Amino acid sequence: MKRGPRAVSTPPRQGPSWMVRLIASWAADRRRAVGAVVLALAGAGIDLATPLVIRSVVDGLSAGRAVGIGALVMLAVAAVLRFVVQFTQRTTASRLATRVQHDLRVTLLAAVCRYSGERQDALRRGEVVSRSITDLQVVQSLLALAPQAAAAVLHVAIQMAIMFFLSPVLALVALGTIPLAGVLVVRSRRRIYAATWLSQQAAADLTSFTGEAIAGLPVTKVFRREELTERRYGGMARELFGQRQRVARLNAAFSPGLTALPQFALVVVMGIGGLMTLRGEISVGTFIVFATYLLTMTGLVRLLAGVVSATALARSSADRIHAVIDGGDQASAADGDTPRTARGGRLGVLLSDVELSLGPQSRNVLRGVSVEVAPGECLGVAGRAGSGKSVLGLVLQGQYRPSAGRVEFTGGTGGSGTARLGEADVVLVPEEPFLFSGTIRDNILLGREFDGDSYASALTDAAVDALLERMPDDDRTHVGESGARLSGGERQRIALARALYDAPAVLVLDDATSALDTLTEARVFDALRRRLGQGCTMVVTGRRRTVLALADRIAVVEGGRVVEQGAAGHLLRDSVRLKTLIGEATHTPTLGADDVASEEPDPRGTQSPGGAPGRAGPGEQDPAEALTRYATALPPVVDEPADADVDNGRRDGPLGIREALRPVRSVAVAALVCIGFEVVAAVALPTVARSVLGRSAAGDATAVGLLFTLGLAITAVSWIAGWGTVRATTRVCDRVLFAVRLRLFRHVQRLPLSYVDQVRSGGLLTRMTADVDSLSAFLQTGLLSLIVNLLLVLCAAVVVVLMVPGFWPVLAVAAAAVLVGAAAFQRIVSRSYPRARELLTAVNADLHEKVHGVRTAQIFRCTGPIVAQFAKKSAAYRDERQRGQRAVAWFFPLVALTIDTALICVLLPAAVHGLPWAAGHGSATTAALILYLSMLYYPIQQIATVYDSAQQARVGLRRINGLLSEPPEELLGGAPVRAPSGGGVIRFDRVGFKYRDDAPYSLLDVVLDIRPGMSVAVVGPTGAGKSTIIKLLARFYQPQQGAIRVGGVDAATIPLRDYRRRTAIVPQEAHLFSGSVAENIGFGRPEASAAEITDAVRAFGASEMIDSLPGGLDYGVGPRGSALSAGQRQVVALLRAIVSDPDLLLLDEATCALDLESERSIVNALRDGNGARKTVLVAHRLATAAQADVIAVVERGRLLETGGHEALLRSGGLYADLWAASDQDGATSNRGSGGTA
Questions:
Q1: Phi/psi of residue 11, nearest 5 degrees
Q2: Which residues fall within 8 angstroms of residue 1180, CB to CB, at 6 or more apart?
Q3: What is the per-residue pLDDT across 667-691, written as a single tens digit (0 to 9) for each?
Q4: What is the pTM of this model?
Q5: Would you call 1 helix, strand, or coil by DSSP?
């Protein structure tokens, strides 16, 4: 199937080029940079001088005279110097490359930490992580090669000068291939760059989708849509396969031709040089110098061809990295490096005709907003989800700069003056707070200096002190990745404590207590009232009377406009609009455009809806004209993986070498045949040179001409074999990688959440991307080089022994020395490389988390400490990598030293006695021995270059197979039995559960019946275990005590797919997948027609809301639903659950982002659904819980009481206390009841 050119998005070229920027980064450590260049040049000088010394010995041998031991001493000194120089140069180069990689990684995060709110909205966070994982490795690989490449270029230049000095005629012949090489490079470079950029973009897209799929695993599992997600992943993996195969086709037309040019020059030089030797115009030694130089040049050109390909990769990678870094040049108004002013004083807030346009279509989010908050006053902001109230809080905090109007903070330390936007002491607490991995204390302090009194006050006022009583390690308890070990209410309490710690002048609470139980919320509100009395200015947004009762004045927002404002008591009593919002109106609304208006973006970040191109941003850049032109001229993508590769990817278990190669064995055989021809051709050329010298000495010009023709034929075969090698090996490697990716993704989709929760999502993403990329990098570029160069070394050694049997003891001693060194070398790298890989996983997981926590870091001005923490982890990885590369740096120069020693042994008889190595062999055989031994230098250097990649691939494959060895969740539990017909009663039979073996029980001795047609509301204090009940019902986890029975059958024995076939879940943080609204609604039942989806939207009362979106049901929701507001995401998630028509519906705070009237319309729609449906809902809004048939009250993991609303009120237990607290707060308007407008 042919695919046309892909749309290109890349940053416009401005300022210094990518190469200049990388060189500047590389040369920042001037001492090491200069040292690396000098050492590379010194190594080139030694390589160039050695053949000249050999020339004098061979010429002496031809004349039957000894040149003395001095020449051998010079060779020995050169050998030792070569060892020292290569070791030092490799160590220095690796230090420089890993340092630049570390610096770029840290700079990448630091740049993202400076992003403005708008740039964060455009940021595709998964792609940022991809650039850190993949692109930085590509750049590091090029930088490690840079000194060798520079030395290789100089090496060729000096070689040419020496050859001109020795024989201008032969030098001109050799020089003739350089213009051809230049033309080949120029013609191929741009096309390879464009194709490589598209290939890497496809890889980044795959990484982004992988991260999204990991985050959405709970949704995928409950709706049994693993196969659908796998098909989407498979389609993207096919796209990547095709893009990489196109790059391989272009490389196949480039690299073998470039490598064949020096071989062609060698053959021509052998032909002409043989005739000149025959005529006595040049000596045998000069002939050997030319042949040695050109053989060396073959290795150099092979190195430079790899550098050209690596440059194309690194150029696109560097462009993508710099696009993210340059995005931080326009700092956020809430830049973490900007100091707060007006600390310690009272601040007022004044917004004058503020307007804000956001998104790719510059839609108005705020329209002429004018409000004033006096110092020490509390302003309540009410509005439906998406009305603009959350964005208003972000504007006050400095995340967005208004498009028009002014935001001022009046007052200050002296009681007068103003503070600029972004510099005022304003702290925002969002509804869904972000916590970093670490302890509770770490998350409260966020790098700030510890103050005991402030800390204790913050813990008390946010009710965290009561939370710590239940924590195993007090405030040293780890919260898990993004606070995953805590409930939503517990996260909100920690976020409140974090905000109150510094006693900010202005505190913005964006429905920051929505997940708290009423008793805890009442306690927090009492503390906030005390803070108001102490002069703190507050802006609180909310959808409930209990929240708005905190305010002195209330502003009602609709469609980005303030449509009503006044004294809180007056509006709560008399405003029909406000009473409708808080659920006290008498009519039942539908979900209209204002209910979940599309103008308010998700503050976590958005992209252009539906993937439409938008304004230039770090995630979706404007196309660059030149790259677009190159991409348009590329040949279409035509390659597809075979069906056998798909089948291989669908198998289970670790992937062995035999199993991986079985589907591609015919192509693998073809690759080996091509490699064989290529190696034989390379090994045959020195033998041809030997024969040319022999025939020249005999005066046989005809034989020299025939040998010249044979050499040309060998070169042609080598060129064709090289083309076939590149095509066949890349085909084999890409097919194997396609199967690995499919198998790994499919397996992760089937892992139990109990395992996934133990592994940081960034760490899991690393295994699925970085480890696969390390395997890919080796298979794509290193494997071919390793095989070819190993075969060259082995074949050359075999030919030497066959040519001169008496030379085998020398080779045996050299091999023994190499084996001893290899044993010590392997012991070092076997410890270092796995350790480095583990550290890299930690670094990538940390970056993944910190990129998602940038907005929180900006709010608390702690981007500096956050970046410093990350830099420390990255430095640990850098240091471990350098330890491993030091071993590489000494081992392979040691191998070169043994070759130098063997070469000295060859020349010893000639230098001392003027005799060849073995009797009966003349100077031609000695020359061939020298050429074969000289052939080994650059293959060994190439092996050293790719060895690091090979070790990373080996460790990566071990980690991949380790993940593939984890048992999937369908294999956990006992023998499967058939699910009871119709579902039956679900019974918690004395259920006990804890998340970790060392953790306390989250549920203990729970007994509860859920009958068909029954709705059960689970209520209780924050962290009581409510969400755990939902997770157990979804069978994300299995209880350690008791059992959950369905129709009398232990649920653990029912196959998961059968159990989940009629189950749906709506979590508190609704997860949506990239795609349209319709695709997300139909995710639970993909066979649902468009008419069925439209009917469900209409029955749900959401038609007006959907119609308000550009494109309606076809509107693109962005990654993880980021193009929608929180309320919109919850409505779509609820529709997804309803369309699947489940028998068991699980709602975990599924309407917390909606106002009460919108929630009421949803509850009514749910009641009109499946009459036999069992509904279990977790609710902190007791008005919602009161509508359930049964209310289950949970505290500290135990079920305290069950019953209907009225019965529980009469019993006077915990539920009655919770209800009284909510009712009391709802009836009290605090100071606002008597406030003035």
A1: -70, 145
A2: 489, 514, 515, 516, 517, 518, 1019, 1149, 1152
A3: 888 888 888 888 888 778 777 877 7
A4: 0.72
A5: coil
pLDDT at 187 over 70: yes
Q: What's the rounded Cα separation, in Å, for the pair 742 and 126?
A: 19
Q: Name the one residue in this structure whose structure tokens are 């110097």.
A: 81
Q: What string of DSSP letters covers 1090-1110?
A: HHHHHHHHHHTT-HHHHHHST
For a pLDDT cut of 70, what percent of the chain falls above it?
84
For residue 465, pLDDT beyond 50: yes
pLDDT at 1018 over 90: yes
3-state secondary structure of 471: coil
Q: What is the pLDDT of residue 1041?
A: 92
Surface-to-core class of residue 561, CB atoms within 10 Å of its CB (0-12 exposed, 13-18 middle, 19+ buried) = middle
Question: Distance between CA atoms of 377 and 1190, rounded to whole angstroms?
Answer: 42
Residue 167 CB partners (closer than 8 Å, separation 6+): 273, 276, 281, 282, 286, 290
Alpha carbon 553 to chain centroid, angstroms: 46
Q: Helix count (H) and strand count (E) of the chain?
A: 45, 20
Q: How far apart are CA 256 and CA 1155, in angstroms?
A: 67
Higher-pLDDT residue of 1088, 946: 1088
Convert the pLDDT of each residue in 500-514 to its tens digit. 998 899 999 998 888
For residues 809-813, average pLDDT: 79
Cβ–Cβ under 8 Å, residues 528 and 538: yes
**Given strand 537-542, what is the order of strands in its sheet?**
426-429, 506-510, 537-542, 378-382, 553-558, 561-567
Secondary structure class of 1047 (helix, strand, coil): coil
Q: Check residues 1086 and 456 and name the one with the higher pLDDT.
A: 456
Confidence band of 911 (pLDDT split at 50, 70, 90):
low
**DSSP string across 407-470:** EEEEEETTS--EE-TTTS-EEEE-SS----SSBHHHHHHTTPPP-HHHHHHHHHHTTHHHHHTT
User: Are 217 and 283 a contacting pair, CB within 8 Å?
Assistant: no
Structure tokens at 129: 């992580």
Selection from 251, 237, 236 nearest residue 196 by Cα? 251
pLDDT tens readout for residues 823-859: 787 787 778 878 888 888 888 888 888 888 888 998 8
At what angle are helices 701-749 and 761-768 packed, to 10 degrees? 150
Report in angstroms the alpha-carbon separations of 151 from 14, 32, 39, 83, 232.
30, 16, 9, 16, 46
Return the closest-CA partner of residue 370 out of 319, 417, 408. Answer: 408
819 is written with which tokens?
């084996």
How far from 542 is each of 390, 1065, 1155, CA to CA, in Å? 10, 25, 8
Phi, psi of 1071 (to 5 degrees): -100, 125
* Lowest-pLDDT range of 137-146, 277-286, 594-603, 988-997: 594-603
Which residues are 507's β-sheet partners?
Answer: 427, 538
d(CA 600, CA 284): 82
The token duo for 749 is 């989709």
Domains and CATH numbers, the chain: 18-327+625-958 (1.20.1560.10), 360-581 (3.40.50.300), 986-1062+1144-1152+1171-1226 (3.40.50.300), 1064-1141 (3.40.50.300)
Dump pLDDT digits (tens) for 326-356. 876 555 444 544 445 444 568 899 999 999 8
Q: What SS3 state is found at 184?
A: helix
**CB-CB contact of 508 with 538 (8 Å):** yes
Residue 608 has pLDDT above 60, yes or no: no
- Helix (H) / strand (E) containing 10: none
Q: Which residues pair with 1096 in a beta bridge?
A: none
Q: Is 350 helix (H, G, I), strand (E, B) or coil?
A: strand
Give Cβ neighbours of residue 718 (< 8 Å, ≥ 6 apart): 256, 259, 260, 263, 677, 678, 681, 682
Least confident of 118-122, 519-523, 1109-1113: 118-122
